[in-house]
Specification:
Blueprint lengths: L1 H26 L6 H4 L6 H12 L10 H11 L12 E7 L4 E8 L2 E7 L9 H12 L5 E7 L7 H4 L11 E4 H15 L4 H17 L6 H12 L1 H38 L6 E2 L10 E7 L2 E8 L4 E8 L12 H8 L15 E2 L7 H14 L8
Parallel strand pairs: 3-4, 4-5
Antiparallel strand pairs: 1-2, 2-3, 6-7, 7-8, 8-9, 9-10
Helix pairs in contact: 1-9, 4-7, 7-8
């Protein structure tokens, strides 16, 4: 235990140095980042549009197919690409009838399909549907299906494996961690004499590094590696990893038992006509309770991948003009929920709540009770 404490102390010294470095860098304005300010971290659609804008030979960057060629060279690990990209067309959210392809690149007679996943899970038979579309459209078989994630993980069986045969569609894994970062670095080198394009690429690169936990200073990172390089410390690190794995196992077991508690809570409200319990396919698959409050639906849900409680205020009619809709922050404040919210982890329209994971059910129950209590006092529109 003494050796473990010593290792943790040494690591903490470096982490504190990194914290100070980042704060000093922030004061100098070096950490100013438009992508971070706009909160695009979790938006697959926004990332797809950013990437596609650089890949597009007709894009406003004015560099023709340069960035597209660099991209293909990076993901194929090949300096020679046998595809004519000069007149390539790049689409985002391309509608194929039974789905939307995040990024579709059509270069001559080649099709390049990119399914982009930052945090969202796979849809049912998603890659199977995209592959079927490509087989029909590119009858010569000249197409490639890429699965882009933060760290290069595989697609789920539900997305990529055909029922019955168990056959998996042919797709290639690429990652933000390796491929997108490498590609952006190549683009930056080629944009050295174009400051506006270069700095935009640099900001997006820094944003991706933050998302993939790669933004530590190289000297501090080397110090960490030096600490862990000794045989003794490597053994200690393995033990620490074991402790962490055990803790995560306990956490997962807790949330499995939480499902039973949630079902019991649902049973208490089954007779209330203003509360519904959506099926996973009908609404967002994380929604648990939907409370109708006037013309507002309050969704109370659960992030399976993050083990976090979330809440969403949505409106009953999309015909209501945005100018006439009360702000969500005002709605949450009137409910008395703002003090419970973790604003630093606010994503998209969902609001996350602050609590220790062992208090998840108590927090969920409290939120449901608060929303129901205010049911008779809806915000006026």
């Amino acid at each position: 235990m003494e050796n473990i404490n010593k290792l943790l102390q040494d690591v903490n010294v470096i982490l504190q140095k990194e914290k100070v470095r980042k704060e000093e860098s922030r004061k100098r304005g070096e950490r100013f980042n438009m992508f971070e300010m706009l909160g695009v971290a979790h938006y697959e659609v926004t990332h797809s549009k950013i990437i596609a804008s650089f890949l597009n030979p007709q894009g406003s960057h004015g560099q023709g197919d340069l960035f597209l060629r660099l991209f293909l060279q990076t993901i194929e690990n090949n300096d020679e690409i046998n595809i004519d990209t000069s007149n390539a067309k790049v689409y985002t959210e391309y509608d194929i009838g039974n789905g939307r392809i995040d990024i579709l690149i059509e270069a001559a007679d080649h099709g390049i399909i990119i399914e982009n996943k930052v945090y969202a899970g796979d849809q049912h038979e998603q890659l199977i549907r995209y592959n079927s579309y490509a087989e029909r459209k590119y009858t010569n078989g000249k197409y490639t299906l890429y699965y882009l994630t933060l760290y290069g993980k595989a697609a789920s069986d539900d997305s990529a494996k055909e029922k019955g045969s168990g056959k998996c569609v042919n797709y290639r894994r690429i990652s933000y961690l390796k491929d997108i970062i490498s590609w952006l670095q190549c683009c930056i080198c080629e944009s050295a004499t174009m400051p506006l394009i270069r700095e935009t690429l640099v900001q997006y690169l820094n944003h991706i590094k933050q998302l993939t936990n790669q933004d530590m200073d190289s000297l501090n990172e080397k110090e960490l590696m030096d600490i862990f390089s000794s045989e003794e410390n490597m053994e200690i690190a393995v033990k620490i990893k074991g402790f962490v794995d055990n803790a995560n196992t306990v956490k997962k077991m807790y949330f499995e038992s939480l499902k039973n508690d949630i079902e019991k809570l649902k049973n208490q409200y089954t007779n209330l006509d203003y509360i519904s319990f959506p099926e996973s396919k009908k609404y967002d698959d994380r929604a648990i309770f939907v409370v109708k409050t006037g013309k507002i639906h309050t969704y109370i849900g659960w992030s399976i991948c993050k083990y976090e409680l979330m809440c969403l205020a949505e409106y009953d009619s999309y015909q209501i003009k945005k100018a006439n809709r009360p702000k969500r922050d005002e709605y949450f404040n009137n409910l008395g929920l703002n003090s419970l919210l973790n604003e630093e982890n606010d994503w998209c329209r969902w609001k996350y709540f602050k609590y220790d994971w062992r208090e998840a059910f108590d927090c969920l129950k409290k939120v449901v009770e608060i929303v129901i209590q205010h049911k008779e006092k809806p915000l006026s529109l």
